[in-house]
Design brief:
- It is a single chain.
- The protein is 80% helix and 0% strand.
- With 105 residues, the protein is an all-alpha fold.
- It has one domain (2-103).
- The longest helix is centred in the middle third of the chain and has 22 residues, at 55-76.
Length: 105
C-alpha cells in the first residue's frame, strides 16, 4: 500500500507544481487553492508512505515523479523547449528512480 500512496503523492506533486505555475505567483484564486489542496494531499500521502518505506527511498521517488512529471507537462502542455541536454537530464533522473526502486526490494 505504501508504494501506491507514494505514486499518488508524486502525481499530486505534479498537480501542485502545475497549479502553482498557473496561479501567477498566487495572484489567481482557483489555481492557488488547487496548489494548496494538492500540496497538502501530496504531503499527507508521502507521510503515509514513509510509515514503512525508508526516508531516502520515499523522498527520492516522490521528488523524481514530480520532476519527470513536471518536465513532461512543461513540454506537452506549456510548450517548454525540448533539447538533447534536457532529455538526457530527464533520462538520468528516471534511471536514478529505477535504480532506487530496484535497490529497495
Amino acid at each position: 500500500m505504501s508504494w501506491i500512496f507514494l505514486v499518488f503523492a508524486g502525481l499530486l506533486e505534479v498537480v501542485w507544481a502545475y497549479s502553482m505555475k498557473q496561479s501567477a505567483g498566487f495572484t489567481r484564486t482557483v489555481p492557488s487553492l488547487i496548489t494548496v489542496v494538492a500540496l497538502l494531499a501530496s504531503f499527507g500521502l508521502l507521510a503515509l508512505a514513509m510509515r514503512t518505506l525508508p526516508l531516502g527511498t520515499a523522498y527520492t521517488i516522490w521528488t523524481g515523479i514530480g520532476a519527470i512529471g513536471a518536465f513532461l507537462l512543461g513540454i506537452f502542455v506549456l510548450g517548454e523547449p525540448v533539447n538533447m541536454v534536457r532529455i538526457v537530464a530527464a533520462l538520468l533522473i528516471l534511471t536514478g528512480l529505477i535504480l532506487m526502486i530496484l535497490s529497495s526490494h
